[in-house]
Amino acid sequence: MAATVGASPRVICLGLAALDRIWRIPAFAPAPRKIRAFGMEEAGGGMAATAAVTVARLGGRAALWSRVGGDSAGAAIRDGLAREGVDVANLRCFPGALSSSSGVFIDAAGERLVANFRGQDLPADPAWLPLDEVAEAGAALADVRWAEGAAALFAAARHAGVPTVLDGEAGSVDWVPVLLPLIDYAIFSVQGLTEFAPGPLEAGLARARAAGGCHVGVTQGEDGYLWHDDAGLHHVPAFRVPAVDTNGAGDAFHGAFALALAERRGLDECVRMASAVAALKCKCPGTRAGLPDRAALEQFLATETMP
User: Does the predicted model carry a pTM greater than 0.85?
Assistant: First the structure.
């Protein structure tokens, strides 16, 4: 993984920070009924928050800009991120608001079902964000859960020449055309891309490119990463690993990709590094427990090859 790498580049991540309550079940029921869980845990979640933890685990300086409520969930979210070494100085608590939380059900094959409560009374106005700090970052990443904040971050990054990454998850399709002209790398989930552009993934990527994206891609789990740029359509297969828990794999991909950009790696290295981090995350149960450190990532890349 040779690259011109600076010392601990800073990556600003903006968007959802949540508290996950995770139940492990044998299988998803074919119809509504009672089923028995064989495990339960509580852990930090959220796309931007987990991306920030990924950056920190890999040795980058991660900052999370986000909103939580003045409730016990908000305190747990902040404490968990601080323990991971994420800069939470701009994780703002709003008294009287409710934090985002998710119920996550994971079956024996590692597949998941997520029900997300996005919080309540969390102000959308991003005027309090310290946008003057963006110029000092190596990369800026945002998800679509706080679209007003994402637009402000991406505009500041574009002005400063800082590379930007959009986590195009489902749920805020109306904002995607607004954000695409502001970003360098739009990386969708399959659900997010098909919500934006129903139909074949290749056609969806072409539509996203036409809306202003320079590099638009889609993470497909075990089917790898597909993207469209000025050179055309490209595909990289996924690393083959025994998947125990896929929850958070897309967030890990985004965080690792953003850090690789901040380290000024080439696109092929960015995709390979992000794919490896996502694969390693899937090998362990827990949204963040399987996120690798740099030594584990380097060892994996030295011994594993993509099919």
Answer: yes
